[in-house]
Amino acid sequence: MGEGKLKLCVFGTFNAGKSSFVQALDPHTRHIEANCPGGTTTVALDFGRVKIGERMVYLFGTPGQERYEFVRQILARGMDGAIIIVDSTAAPDDMTRKLLAWLKDQGVPVVLMLNKCDLPGSSPSRFAHEIGDAAVHLISAKNGENVHEALSSFVGTIVG
Which phi-psi region, left, alpha or beta, contains residue 13 (left: φ > 0; alpha: ψ -120 to 50)? Predict the structure, then answer.
């Protein structure tokens, strides 16, 4: 993306907390959403930026429904790293498995952020067999818990 800049794409299933994650890092996030059963959903992207050390990190949140695969493909072009937001209160799902496999095939650094760890029913351990060698951080995007620390750690692995 250029000297001193990183492009990170934020992936995950519907309602995993991708928009909340980006908003926790940048309160001036821009996003395009639509009403749907159960609330709202991102239909194009979330865009935020945050400075980590000397680098400006640009975050592109992708839509979570499978029908928006083409949007994820477009946003992923030229990414320096990928963040998969996972709802730790839900069971592992096929979309997360497919995203993880696809991103590993792309050869970009990948991290899993197990979100909603503050909620009853959260069970990060149920994802252990799904993760393989991907780095993992426990977060609560809604209240900002461990969000900045997790992103800083991931950026550190990318830039060395």
Answer: beta
Pairing of the two strands 39-52 and 55-61: antiparallel
d(CA 35, CA 37): 7
Give 125's contacts (C-beta < 8 A, 6+ positions apart): none
Report residue 61 CA to chain centroid gap.
7
Number of domains in the chain: 1
Q: Which of 34, 46, 35 is nearest to 72 (CA)?
A: 46
Residue-wise pLDDT for 79-112, tens only, equals: 999 999 999 999 888 989 999 999 999 999 999 9
> Which residue from 10, 4, 1 is spatially nearest to 147, judged by alpha carbons?
10
Query: Residue 75's domain spans which residues?
Result: 5-159
pLDDT digits (tens, 9 = 90+) for 37-49: 766 665 557 889 9
Report how far apart, in Å, the C-alpha atoms of 25 and of each of 44, 59, 60, 70, 131 are.
19, 9, 12, 26, 24
CATH number reported for the structural domain that contains residue 47 in this entry:
3.40.50.300
